[in-house]
Structure formats: structure tokens, C-alpha cells
Amino acid sequence: xxxxxxxxxxxxxxxxxxxxxxxxxxxxxxxxxxxxxxxxxxxxxxxxxxxxxxxxxxxxxxxxxxxxxxxxxxxxxxxxxxxxxxxxxxxxxxxxxxxxxxxxxxxxxxxxx
Amino acid sequence: xxxxxxxxxxxxxxxxxxxxxxxxxxxxxxxxxxxxxxxxxxxxxxxxxxxxxxxxxxxxxxxxxxxxxxxxxxxxxxxxxxxxxxxxxxxxxxxxxxxxxxxxxxxxxxxxxxxxxxxxxxxxxxxxxxxxxxxxxxxxxxxxxxxxxxxxxxxxxxxxxxxxxxxxxxxxxxxxxxxxxxxxxxxxxxxxxxxxxxxxxxxxxxxxxxxxxxxxxxxxxxxxxxxxxxxxxxxxxxxxxxxxxxxxxxxxx
Lengths: 113, 253
Hints:
The complex is a heterodimer. Chain A is of the alpha+beta class. Chain A has a single domain (about 1-110), classed as CATH 2.40.50.140. Chain A has helices at about 1-10, 15-20, 105-110, and strands at about 30-35, 40, 45-55, 60-65, 75-85, 90-100. Chain A has a five-stranded mixed barrel. In chain A, a hairpin with a 4-residue loop joins strand 3 and strand 4. The model of chain A has no long low-confidence stretch (mean pLDDT about 85). Chain B contains nine helices and no strands. Chain B has one domain. Chain B has helices at about 1-15, 20-50, 65-90, 95-125, 135-155, 160-175, 175-185, 205-240, 245-250. In chain B, about 75% of the residues lie in helices and about 0% in strands. By secondary structure, chain B is mostly helical. Chain B is globular, with a radius of gyration of 21 Å. At the A-B interface, strand 6 and helix 3 of A face helix 4 of B.
């Protein structure tokens, strides 16, 4: 049953990866929030660095490629790639943004700021 | 008490009668038609032109006005078919078998609409058309159940054995419905959890929610209309040579 559970879940959280690190030659998905103020962009390439957090643990992610529109700090993200436990680094080759269930009109957001 | 019971019983027997249903439903169709389409256009036009833009997704969020109603209807139609399957297996009501036969293509169409509209939204929003997460996969399984039900019918020559087999299959498939509903809570998925909540405040602004509720309501009316028409068509096909049908069509009734 726990094996089934693992297969149905789309991604591992940083805590899962820390407690039960998968082998680094197997492609996996990691998910959580993009940590605030962790996003660094290389100025002359598409290379980026950021951290995924589940508010308990954090992993570092490197990625080189295009990002979906909704990719932002403090928003949900699912990265596919390889995890290297010794460096606590996740080398991603695909980044997907996770949308939350909130639908907010533009005007309301402006008024709140 | 006895009186209520006999009223329900007589309604059940009437409902099971092809001639009664055919005549009775003909009165409903114009009403449902006149009601359904204006409400549908009201919801869609409100949703597309007048509801505000979403702050994170921009204009693309408007696909919700098709996606959510289609997904809701797709699951409800299956639920109704599973109940009909139970009625057929227990009481051998012919109309219940016919109901499943008539509704399966309609349910399949709305499932396809939900999957395609979701993919079109997912590409710019998530960055992918498709992902094998629990919500998307279980919805694809729903579509497969619909298709297998349609396919199983055509593999039988005998209507009775077809109805029996399909009723059992439909009931088995109903186990997928709570899985679709709860998939976003039980497992981690790319698909977001429910926005409209019955027991707590919905996480959508009212000026976006009202047109959405109108769209959902109109989809149910339209499915009711399509269902009635499909059932009448199938009754006509099965009863073509019966005297009641000939009399009705030729105006001797």
C-alpha cells in the first residue's frame, strides 16, 4: 500500500527527499514552494537557481531552460530531474508551475496593496 | 403512508413504460430548450466579457467557464448511470438499461471537453498539456469507462444480455468517482484542489463565481435536454414497429 501511495503521488517533498533519498541516476519529481528571495538568474543565459521548500526542509534546484508563466517565488512548483543527496542539489530538466485554488480579480489585488 | 407508496409505485411503473415516457417527455423538451440555451449564453458571455481578469493567470483563467461545468456534468452523468445500473440489475427495469445506453455518449463527450479544455489551460499555466497526476489520470479512466460501456453494448446481439452486462460494468466503474473527487486531497497532484466549496467559503471572488455557477447550472439543463432527446431517439428505434408508436406518429392517437 505504501508503494502504491508513492506511485500515485506526483512528486516528493524536500522532507521526503531528505529522509529517503532516491538514487541520483533515477529521474524523479520534486515539489513544493519556491522559497522567497531564493531565485537567482544568470544574466547572460537561461540558467537559474532557486530553492524548493515545504516549510520544514529545503533543497537547492538548478535549471537551464524556459519557465512557465506562473513560475514565481512563494508559488507552487514541480521540478523533474535528478537529486544528488551529497550536495543537496536537484538538477532539473523540466519545471512546471502549480496553480493554487485561488481566483482573485486584478482590481482587488491592486486595492489590497 | 400507503397512499404515498402507491403513488411512487405508479410513477415508477409509468416511468418504465416507453409510450408514457415518449409522450410525457415531448411536453418537456420545448421548455428545457427555451430555458437552457439563454442561461448558457448568459453565463458564457458574462464569464468571457464581464467577469474580471485573474491576477495570476490573466485571461486564460476564463476557460474555467467551460472546464468546471463539463467536468462536473461528466461525473454526475456517470453517477446517474450507476444508479440506473443498480435499478436494472435489481428490478430489471428496461428504461434503466436504455438510460445508460442513451447517456454514455453524452457523458463521454463532456469528459472529452473537460480533458481538452484542461489541456489548453494547462499548457500556458503549468507548462504542460498533460501530466500523469492522480486527478488527470482518474478523469482519463472515467473516459475509458464511458468508451468501454459504449463498446460493450455493440458486442452483444441480444439487448437484454447487453443491458445486464453494461449495468454491472457501470456499477463497478462508480468506484472511480470518489477517487476523482478526492484525488487532489489524498495525493499530491499538479491539479489544484477544489475552488468551489459547499461547507466553507469558496476561494474565488464572487464576481467570478456567479457566472461560473450559472454556467454549471446551464450545463445541467442542457444535459437533461440532450438526455431526453437521446432516450426518445432510442425508444423510437426500438419501438418502430409497435402499434402505439405508429399511431402516435401517424396521428391516429
